[in-house]
Amino acid sequence: MTDLAGRAARLVAEIDAEVPALRRIAEEAARARDRVVAGDAMACSHAALQLHRWYTGVEGLLERIERALGVPPSPGPGWHRELLRGATLELPRRRPSVIAPATELLLVELLSFRHFIRHAYAVALDPARLVPLLDRLAEAQPAIERDLGALAEQLRAAAATSDGS
Question: Whose CA is closest to 69, among 51, 53, 38, 90?
Fold first, then answer.
């Protein structure tokens, strides 16, 4: 197996393992939504944690994809945003686009919330702010599944081609 085929096979395995985990987190967040709407403080905390976990999982997977395919990380304080923006770009002879531009738009708000929640340890969570984020997550999950599924198919094809199959 060539190096490309090996890296592609590993990425496909990671995508296949991560997508169901992300789906479970999104489902957990969705189950808290009605209690968040009702203003339940514990449900707000739980939902915020699930939003954080989900986005962190997506970002970690995007980082691993870039690293495995030889795309250097963006330096500087804006690297989180650059990772999303870069994931929409096709890099000829390196990798196809990882996510659609529409998916990036869904993820940007979740990235902002993830940043907020990591630094807002003394702030009460506002249900009116959490509900739209939970709704955004409900849109983002199938988009991520679609985009990562398409990437996995392209990686499988590239691995088969480079492996001579």
Answer: 90
For 83-129, what is each residue's pLDDT tens digit? 999 999 998 888 889 999 999 999 999 999 998 988 777 778 999 99
Q: What are phi and psi of 160, to 5 degrees?
A: -65, -40
Rounded to whole angstroms, how far apart are CA atoms 39 and 56?
25
- Least Cα distance to 72 among 82, 57, 58 occurs for 82
Percent of residues in the chain assigned helix, strand, coil, to nearest 5: 75, 0, 20
Span 132-147, pLDDT tens digits: 999 999 999 999 999 9
Contact 159, 8 (CB under 8 A): yes
Distance separating alpha carbons of residues 138 and 15, to the nearest angstrom: 19
